[in-house]
Q: What sequence folds into this?
């Protein structure tokens, strides 16, 4: 870890800047802002995904509310509390890290939901096994006729 002149790790100083209210960061004074926003978005996605999984939420409402939370909560913080000059950043801070955070949300949601619904996973696995058996039997019947390809031509 890179140390600064104040003998604190660089990441601590970065997060101190990110949590300093009304600091009005710009690209010159705080170039790490997009990275911090991405990390916060991924954390929100992880926590929200775990919450959805434990509550057993199904359907698109979880994804829509998750997308809204991941996108707009960090923006509200950055624009309203930090008063950052988001337009000055070369990268698009508005949506940076949203796909990563959505992937984290869906992964956490699926993992926790599956852990809490083992009986559904067992039933699904049995259905897959039946489908494999049917496909295997169907493929086996096609080539099992007495006539060979040479006899047919």
A:
């Amino acid at each position: 870890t890179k140390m600064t002149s104040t003998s604190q790790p660089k990441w601590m100083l970065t997060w101190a800047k990110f949590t300093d209210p009304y600091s009005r960061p710009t690209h010159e004074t705080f170039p790490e802002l997009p990275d911090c926003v991405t990390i916060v978005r991924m954390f929100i996605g992880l926590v929200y995904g775990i919450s959805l999984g434990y509550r057993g939420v199904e359907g698109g409402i979880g994804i829509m509310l998750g997308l809204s939370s991941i996108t707009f909560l960090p923006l509200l913080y950055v624009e309203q509390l930090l008063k950052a000059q988001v337009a000055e950043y070369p990268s698009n801070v508005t949506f940076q890290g949203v796909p990563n955070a959505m992937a984290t949300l869906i992964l956490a949601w699926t993992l926790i939901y599956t852990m809490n619904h083992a009986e559904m996973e067992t039933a699904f696995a049995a259905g897959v096994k039946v489908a494999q058996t049917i496909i295997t039997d169907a493929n086996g019947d096609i080539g099992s006729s007495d006539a060979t390809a040479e006899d047919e031509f």
In short: The CA atoms of residues 142 and 148 lie 11 Å apart. The chain has a mean pLDDT of 86.
